[in-house]
Design goal:
Blueprint (H helix, E strand, L loop, with lengths): L3 H15 L4 E6 L2 H4 L4 H8 L4 E7 L2 E6 L4 E5 L4 E6 L15 E7 L4 E6 L5 E5 L4 H6 L13 H8 L6 H6 L9 H11 L12 H20 L40 E5 L2 E5 L13 H12 L5 H9 L1
Antiparallel strand pairs: 1-6, 2-3, 3-4, 4-8, 5-7, 6-7, 9-10
Helix pairs in contact: 1-8, 5-8, 7-8
The protein binds zinc ion.
């Protein structure tokens, strides 16, 4: 699913096309996209709105309007946006697509098409007074902002007994980290993904903070990772997947030490790590055992739905 680097890349691609433009015509054909709101009503509300800014918070794309309202787009698993320029005859240049569920025609004659194979994506139109509250209760600090320091991460982790990977997947801990960049960050930090979050040393928290920023920055630089459906608004692909350190690299040698990358499950998610560079830290007798018990608990049938919900916001 698209994570911070992918959504940021989409934002950068769409901003020049959308900013200053008015939504002339809006067609939403999938009721799942706007539920519980009626797609026709939402489409009508959007018509006439002028875009002032295309923003991002975590994995949310935020289209801000002159009226103060905002359209929050979450791509979830397989959502993607495509801009078709007017001089290229807008949507006519694109092949017919059974997975296209919304089209916005802008006042310059260009189109923005929303495609979603799995149909988990959402479009939510928020009134001016609701925008900040909605986002701030669901999304933690932005990790790539200069003001984001290790102490902010430390505060969030101090009370969490969950494995560090589960903790950083929770969007309230830090914004925008998903399954891919969590693994990449922990490899960079040399921290075992099952280490209980509140047992990390101050140095380890600093390393995780640095690892999160470095892995997300690497993703943004390569315009995100295209594994399946993710595309840039001009239809091109990202290339971050070519430089992953651990994600999806089971059995391949760790570039730091040569040990084959291993795959386990943490909080119900496939997790890749280097068993040598990211050895489970033995903080005292029984600590490994305790970690394993927590790992087992996080995979029990009672808990995964909670961690999935948290991680997908
Ligand atoms: Zn290694």
């Amino acid at each position: 699913m698209p994570e911070l680097p992918e959504v940021e890349t989409v934002r950068r691609g769409l901003a020049p096309a959308l900013e200053g433009r008015r939504f002339e015509h809006v067609e939403i054909t999938d009721p799942r996209l706007t539920r519980p709101h009626d797609p026709l009503e939402v489409a009508l509300e959007l018509e006439g709105e002028r875009v002032t800014k295309v923003d991002r918070r975590g994995k949310y794309l935020i289209v801000r309007f002159e009226s103060g309202r905002a359209l929050l787009i979450h791509l979830r698993m397989t959502g993607s946006l495509r801009h078709a320029k007017a001089e290229d005859h807008g949507l006519e240049q694109l092949p017919a697509d059974p997975h296209r569920h919304a089209v916005v025609t802008l006042d310059d004659g260009s189109d923005v098409a929303y495609r979603d194979v799995r149909r988990f994506g959402t479009w939510l139109l928020l009134e001016p007074s609701d925008v900040d509250t909605y986002i701030d209760t669901r999304v933690g600090k932005e990790p790539l902002e200069a003001a984001y320091k290790a102490k902010h991460l430390a505060e969030k982790l101090a009370t969490r007994r969950a494995p560090i990977k589960a903790a950083i997947l929770d969007q309230r801990t830090v914004a925008g980290v998903g399954n891919i960049y969590a693994d990449e960050a922990l490899w960079r930090a040399q921290v075992h993904p099952l280490t209980p979050a509140n047992e990390l040393t101050a140095d380890e928290v600093k390393a995780v903070h640095k690892g999160i920023r470095a892995s997300l920055q690497a993703g943004v630089r390569r315009q995100g990772s295209t594994l399946r459906d993710y595309q840039l608004p001009d239809g091109s692909s990202g290339s971050a997947q070519d430089r992953f350190k651990v994600y999806g690299r089971g059995g391949l040698p760790c570039e730091r030490c040569g040990t084959p990358i291993d795959k386990i499950r943490v909080a119900g998610r496939g997790t890749w790590y280097c068993p040598n560079c990211q050895a489970y830290r033995d903080a005292g007798a029984g600590s490994t055992k305790r970690g394993q018990r927590r790992y087992a608990a996080s995979n029990s049938s009672k808990r995964p739905s909670r961690s999935r919900r948290q991680s997908s916001v």
